[in-house]
Amino acid sequence: MIDLLLLRRDPELIRRSALRRRIDASFVDRLLEIDERLRAGQTAVESLKAEKNALTASISKATDRAAEARRLRPQIAELDDRIAQTGALLPSLERERDAILAEVPNTLDDSVPDGAGPEANVVVRSSGPPPAFSFTPKPHWELGERLGIVDFERAAKLSGSRFSVLRGAGARLSRAIVDFFLDRARRRNYVEIVPPYLVTRETMWSTGQLTKFSDQMFRDADADLFMIPTAEVPLTALHRDEILSAEQLPLQYTAYSPCFRKEAGAAGKDTRGLIRQHQFEKVELVWLTRPERSFEALEQLTSDAEALLRELELPHRVVLLCSGDTGFNAAKTYDLEVWLPGQGTYREISSCSNCTDFQARRSGIRFRPEPTARPVFVHTLNGSGLAVGRTFLAILENYQQADGSVLIPAALVPFCGFSRILPDGSVSS
């Protein structure tokens, strides 16, 4: 949620950010109008209450209190009516203000480049040229099915489209990837959390998932619980409505979780393979930090995620998203994109964002810069460290061999216990 004080102080900043995102900025004037009417109404109510209190006080000071009360009763009754009438207008204004605020995205950082979509994103750095093959590399869905380690047909029988079954070496490789990611996160001082995978509506709203992304969520309507679309949700909301001490910051959390998304609006897009599924797995990285250190933390968070790709020796690049491609919650985002030779393109494998105080305002997460200081909002950051399924498929495509086997990156061998998946799906050490 954006800062109302910032809106009052610098509405052009909010307007400019909205226009850079290619969204209608008329909400700025409407919010300012509602805010002015609300504050005027609140001031009027307080003034009327003060006038009433003064009359009541004069009764208590009068020599003949009963006579004074009779004399002032009509004035007090009139003031009560005016207070009730003026006050009755305020709740609807507050509801309209809050409804508009719930749909306003975060204010973009000035370093975010302008642009309407992915074509305007800026490559910040690259790991080097993609590998060369002496044969035509295959896409992961063909490799996985040929090796017998990915089964889309039986997954469809169980659950419909956009699901997969991993078996044998595939299941072991996926589990090894998770263990590797969590081990490296621990080495970088992230505290591992096992969160609930079903969360309340309040938790979803507090992290900016509702109402903007409500069409993407799976939900238990009876319990009004949502299946998490990412572990960012419970990790960020872990300290909801808390006041932290400065000494606690930064807080760095990590969690492995399954993630669930309807992928509404993605019909016909990435229908083959593991790229876009209703259920997938990620290891998430989340920071809560002081405002003045959050952009420094974004660089560190991105570096932590990128280090995994470097250690796995997967060709990749770091991309700064443009204004039109930056997500609802984020002030600035880097995407990590891994090269997929079977598809001849880079694909996102992690998205690392600084959400500044946007989520913290919705979640009520504050800290005291000094023991006696007034609490201020923390800044929250999140990133995938990394998406498990996309790492799995990137390994299949980048490490495929001419004989149909797939090598395992050296960093993963201690976690999975084998160094190659053979053409028949068996493994060798």
How would you sum up this structure, described in words?
By secondary structure, this protein is α+β, with helices and mostly antiparallel strands. It folds into two domains: 4-102, Helix Hairpins (Orthogonal Bundle), CATH 1.10.287.40; 118-428, Bira Bifunctional Protein, Domain 2 (BirA Bifunctional Protein, domain 2, 2-Layer Sandwich), CATH 3.30.930.10. Helices cover 40% and strands 20% of the residues. The chain has helices spanning 4-9, 11-20, 27-61, 65-88, 90-102, 140-147, 152-159, 169-187, 201-206, 232-236, 294-311, 358-363, 388-398, 413-416, and strands spanning 122-126, 150-151, 165-166, 191-192, 198-200, 219-220, 225-227, 243-245, 251-260, 279-289, 316-320, 332-340, 345-354, 366-368, 376-377, 379-387, 406-407, 420-421, 427-428. The strands form five sheets. An eight-stranded mixed beta sheet has the order 1-11-12-13-16-10-9-4. Strands 5-7-6 form a three-stranded antiparallel beta sheet. The protein has a three-stranded mixed beta sheet with strand order 8-14-15, with no helix packed on it. A hairpin with a 4-residue loop joins strand 6 (219-220) and strand 7 (225-227). Helix 3 runs antiparallel to helix 5. The radius of gyration is 28 Å and the shape is elongated.
How are the elements arranged and paired?
Elements: H1 4-9, H2 11-20, H3 27-61, H4 65-88, H5 90-102, E1 122-126, H6 140-147, E2 150-151, H7 152-159, E3 165-166, H8 169-187, E4 191-192, E5 198-200, H9 201-206, E6 219-220, E7 225-227, H10 232-236, E8 243-245, E9 251-260, E10 279-289, H11 294-311, E11 316-320, E12 332-340, E13 345-354, H12 358-363, E14 366-368, E15 376-377, E16 379-387, H13 388-398, E17 406-407, H14 413-416, E18 420-421, E19 427-428
Parallel strand pairs: 4-9, 8-14
Antiparallel strand pairs: 1-11, 2-3, 5-7, 6-7, 9-10, 10-16, 11-12, 12-13, 13-16, 14-15, 17-18, 18-19
Helix pairs in contact: 3-4, 3-5, 6-13, 8-13
